[in-house]
Amino acid sequence: MGLTCQSCGKALLNDKFNIKLGNHEAFVIALAGNPNVGKSTVFNALTGLKQHTGNWPGKTVTNARGHYTHKDKEFMLVDLPGTYSLLANSVEEQVARDFICFGKPNATVVVVDATCLERNLNLVLQVMELTDHVVLCVNLMDEARRKGISVDLDTLQKSLGIPVVGTTARSGEGLTNLMDEVHDISLGLKITSPKNINYSKDIEEEIKGLVPKLENIFGNTLNPRWVALRLLEGDQTLLDSIHQFLYTEIYSNKDTEVACFYE
Amino acid sequence: MKNSTLSQDPIPLSNITVGTTVQVLDLKTTGLSRRRMLDLGIVPGTIINVLRKSPLGDPIAYNIRGATIALRKEESSQILVNPI
Amino acid sequence: MSSQTSNPYEILVDIQNEISNENQCKFRDSMVKSIYTQAEAIAEKVVTKSHTKKYDWDHKLDDILTSKFTGYPIMFFLLGLVFWITVTGANVPSSMLADFLFGIESKLTTLFMSVNTPQWLHGILILGMYRTLGWVISVMLPPMAIFFPLFTLLEDLGYLPRVAFNLDKLFKKAGAHGKQSLTMSMGFGCNAAGIIACRIIDSPRERLIAMLTNNFVPCNGRFPTLIAISTVFVGGAVASHYSTIIASFFVCTLVLLGIFMTLIISWGLSKTLLKGVPSSFTLELPPYRKPQFLKILYHSLIDRTIFVLGRAIVVAAPAGLITWILANVFIEDLSILSHMAAFLQPLAHLIGMDGFILMAFILGLPANEIVLPILIMSYMSEGAMLELDSLQAMGDLFIANGWTWLTALNVMIFSLLHFPCATTLWTIKKECGSSKWTLFAAIMPTLIAFITCFFITQLVHIIR
User: Which domain holds residue B52?
Assistant: First the structure.
C-alpha cells in the first residue's frame, strides 16, 4: 500500500506540477515565504548550481527546482512563488497552496524575515494549518542584529510547535541546522505538533458541523478542518483545485508537458 | 481601546498627513480588493504609520506591520481610520 | 474507482452554497483577524527591540531617493552615471578586443591563402562571418560586461521598487499597471526578459499594454548602437574632455524619450484598443540590502552577459554570411544589396536616412546588435567591413556616405522606437498566445518610429 501511494504521489507531481524526480528516492521539499525575505538566497545557498527552471503547468508563474544532498539523502527543493498569504487571491498564491496541499511535499520550509516577524508569521500559521511537516527558517538574522532586533527562537519554537532555525543565508549561517531539521522531518524522525489557530466561536461551531462530513469524503488525503475553513469563507478556487487534482484522471500526456515546459 | 477614539468620525487613510499613526476601523471595499487588503494585514485594529508621499503625491507609502507598502489613492481611500 | 452516488466535488459545492455570501465575507474577515491576532501575540512574546536604535539609513535614503525635489534628478543622474561608466570603461577593452580579433583574422587569411581556398569561400567565412562576429564581440562584450553588473547592483540594492514608487502616478495616469515601471526597467537589459517579467502583472489588459510598450526602452542590443553613434556624432561635436559626458547625457535623453513614448502609447492603448481602468496596485518597498558583489558579478556576467552575447553570436554569424552574399552577388552592375537599398531609398529618404540604413534595420530583425555591423559592411565598396579599429573610423565611413547630424539623430530615434527583435516578438507570441497582438507589437512601434523620424526630418528641412 505504501508503495502504490508513493508512486501515485510521484505521478501527480510529474503530471500536475511538472516536477520530474530524477531519483525516485529523493525527498520533495517545498520552499515558501513572503516576497523580499531572501527566499531565493536560501534556495541558491542550498542548491548551488543544481537548478532547473520551468513553469507551473498552465500558469505563467516560474517554477524553480534544485537538488542537494544531506546525510546521504537526496532532497529536491521546489521554490514556491513568494506570497503574503495562501488564501489564493492571486495565481502565485494558488500555485503555492496547491503544491503544499496536493503535491504533498515531504517537508515545507517557510522562510521569514527576522526583522519583521509579525507580518511573516501570518503565512507561517496558514502553512501550519495545511500541513504538519513544517520547518521555520528565520532568515536575515544578521540584519536583525544590526537593527537591534532579537528573536527568541526557543520560545518561538515552543509557541508554534514546529522546528525553528535561525539563518543568515548569504553567509551560510544556520544552513546546516536547517538541513538537519528538514532531514529529520522528511524521514519522520521528528514529529511536530503545530499549534492550531483559534477562531471565533461561531466559526468553530461551523467547523465542528462540517468536519465529520469532510472526513467521510477525504479520509486523510486533505485536512478536514482546513477544508471546512475554506468552504466557510467561500473560496471557490480550492474547489476547482480539488476537482482538478483529486477527481481528474492523471494522463501521462507528453505533448502538453513539452508545451508547458519553458526552459 | 480608548473611548475617545471611537467617538471621532472615521477618516479615509488617503486623507491622513505624513508622519501620523492611525488605527484601522473598517474597510469599504469588497471582493478581491478586500481580500488583498486583508492579506497585507490591513484588518480593523491594525496600526498604520503614514511614511512618505511619492514625488507626485501618489502613491503614499505606509508602514503596515513592519513592512513598507505603497498604496494608490484609489485603495487607501477605501480604508477608514482613526488617528491615535 | 469508487462508485459513489454523488461526486464529492458536487457535495462540496453544495455545502459551500448553503453558506450565504454575507456570512462568507464575515467569516473571512474574522479568520484573517484571528490569524493576525495570533501572529501579533507570538511576535510580541519572542521579538525584543533594543531602543538604542542606530541611525535609520532606510528612512534617510528614502527621504532623498523619493523626495519631491531630488527624486527625479537622482534617477536621471544615476541613469546617466551608469551610461557614462559604461561608455568610458568600454573604450579601452573594446579596442583591445578588436585588435586581438582582427589580428587573428589576418592570420586566418594567410592560412586560407596558403591552402589555396577559393576566393568566395574566404569571402563568406572570413570577410562575412568572422568580421561580423568580431565586430559584435568587440563592440558588445565590454559595454555589457560593465552595464549589466551596474544595473544588477541597483536592482540588488533595492532601488528599482523606489523607481516604481516615483513613477507610479505617471503609469496610473496612462491607464497602465504600476508594476509596468518594473518590467520597463527589466527591458533595459533585454526586451525579451522584460516581456517575461510582465507575468507579474495580473490583469491581462495591463499585461498586454506592458508587453506592447516594453520595446520603447532600449535593450542592451541597441545601447551599443546608441552609444556608438552618440559618441561619434554628439560627443564628437564638443571638446574631447566632455565628449563622453555629453554622449552619455544624450543617450539619457533618448531613454527619457523612450519612457515618454511608453507612457503616451500606454495611455493611447488604454483609451482605445485596450480600454479599462487601472487595477488595484500595492508595492512593497523592501529595506535596502547590502549588495553581494561576487554574486552580482556572477549572475550578471553568466546569466545575462553570456546569454545575450551568445544569442548575438548565433544570430550574427549567419547574418554576416547572408549580408556578404547579398553584397557580393551582382545582378547587372549592382549587388543585390544595392538593388534592395535603391528600392528602399525613396522611403528612407522621407525619414532622413538612406536605403542601406533601412536595409540594415530590416536585416537586423533577428537581433538589434547586428544593425551597425551590417550597415558598415554594406557601406564598404568591396562588400566587407574594413578593419575598423575605432569608432572614429566608423564615423568617418558614415560621413563619407553622406551622414549628417540629422541622419545620426534619425537613426538613433528609429533604433529606439522601431520593431522589436525576433526573439522579443517570439516571446510576445509565447506569452500572450495571440498572433494578432504579436503582429501589432511589430507594426505599431515601426509606424511610430516612421512618423517621429518623418516629422523631425521635414521640420528640419522647413527650418533650413
Answer: 3-83
| CB spacing of B65 vs A87 below 8 angstroms | no
Are C62 and B52 an interchain contact pair (Cβ–Cβ within 8 Å)?
Answer: yes
Phi, psi of A261 (to 5 degrees): -90, 115
Q: Which of C23, C65, C280, C288 to mutate to test the interface with B (most CBs of B within 10 A)?
A: C280
What are the phi and psi torsion angles at A150 (to 5°)?
-120, 140
Work out the minimum CA distance from C172 to partner chain A, whole angstroms.
21
Per-residue pLDDT of chain C (464 residues; tens, 9 = 90+): 444 446 777 778 877 777 777 788 888 888 988 999 899 899 988 988 876 555 677 888 888 898 888 988 998 888 888 888 887 888 788 888 888 988 898 898 889 889 888 888 888 888 888 888 887 788 778 877 887 788 788 878 888 889 888 988 898 888 888 788 888 887 877 788 788 888 878 788 889 999 999 999 988 778 878 888 888 888 777 767 777 888 888 888 999 999 999 999 999 999 888 887 767 778 888 888 878 787 778 777 777 777 777 877 787 788 888 888 888 888 888 888 888 889 999 999 999 999 999 999 998 888 787 888 888 888 875 555 555 666 777 888 888 888 999 999 999 999 999 999 888 898 898 888 889 999 999 999 999 999 999 999 999 999 87
Chain C: closest CA distance from residue B9 (Å): 22
Cis before B59? omega within 30: yes
A149 has a chain B CB within 8 A of its CB? no
- Strand pairing of A73-79 and A62-70? antiparallel
Interface check for C114 against chain A (CB to CB < 8 A): the answer is no
Contact A185, A163 (CB under 8 A): yes
Task: Say if C60 is an interface residue toward chain B (CB within 8 Å).
Answer: no
Distance CA C112, CA C127 (A): 12
Instruction: List the one residue out of C221, C281, C278, C228 whose CA is nearest residue C250.
Output: C228
The CATH number of the domain holding residue A25 is 3.40.50.300
Q: How far is C179 from chain B (nearest CA, A)?
A: 12
Domain that holds residue A46: 2-196
ipTM: 0.88
C168 touches chain B (CB under 8 A): yes
* Calpha distance A67→A218 (Å, rounded): 32
Which of A156, A232, A239 is best to mutate for the C interface (most C CBs within 10 A)? A232
Q: B37: domain CATH number?
A: 2.30.30.90
How many domains would you assign to chain A?
1
